[in-house]
Amino acid sequence: MQEEGRGHQAFEGATKVREKPPSLLDPTDYSAAAWLVACSEQRNRADLWQRTVAAVFLTYCLSLGGYPMDWFDESPDFYTAPSLTKRPNRLPASWVAACILYHLQSVSANGHSYSEEVFVSLNNLGAVQPQHIVSCLYPTLSLVNHSCDPNTFRVCTGGGASCFIAALRPLPAGTEILDCYTDCFSIASKEERQKELTSHYLFQCACKACTEDWPGFLDVRMVAMRALKCPQCKEVFTLPARRCSHCKSPKAVVLYERLTNVVLPKQFELVERGVVNGGSVKAAKKLLEDMNALIERPNFVYDRAQEMFKMAVDFTHGIWALEPWA
Fold this sequence. Notes:
three-stranded antiparallel sheet; alpha/beta; SET domain-containing protein; elongated
């Protein structure tokens, strides 16, 4: 029997052991992974059984490789967590297996896909195919919650050794930072997103894009989504009206047409040609900020500008490669 409030968190659960996480997660310290959720309560028996068998097998492999552990002679201090000042010479094998079991659950719920952008043609750098390389665990980024309409996106650098998030729109103080664990709403349908989230992350998304079933790029409903916020009176009106229905100002329509027909195509052409630098990223950021202030979402043009901004940041700061036959 375990003593009350003690024991490894793989056995005890989040409510007792994980009461007080550190104020700062050190991404260079692997023990930070122990503070990430494992979603054990949401897993079915088959999932837990498979991971338990895998944990025992990996523990046995470590034992064969010479890792110091006791299989049948459990230490009296088994239920006291080892520390830098109190480390037994040999850990109980069940403790090692418990650590691995928690790891196997935590990684599946918190891991991020590391991929590089593969450009298949020098003549058209807009033809990009993301290439999955490996799954990584970034403890700090794993604390960011999900939304199918995120306000940030991840950029992998340094061969996957590091990763940072960049804002997709202005984030006032107190705004929750949101990441997208799967394809965002403009790329994948609601059914596809929910299936992926339920399967890999064991939850169903209830973000605005899901609850309102926002259309994506390939959805015919997206064509009709054209509402603008009047810069004069801040009221929302719908195109094809040429003026604000409230104050009759044409400013919103004039600005929308300039951003849509002049600024966005010009910037997209530069990105697709690979003419991208710090100035290009700033210009794409400015375009996105202007659209954010003007356009009521969802909107095809806004989402296209957002994808262009992500491409520009990836091109200048992320990992990309050119196919040898290009």
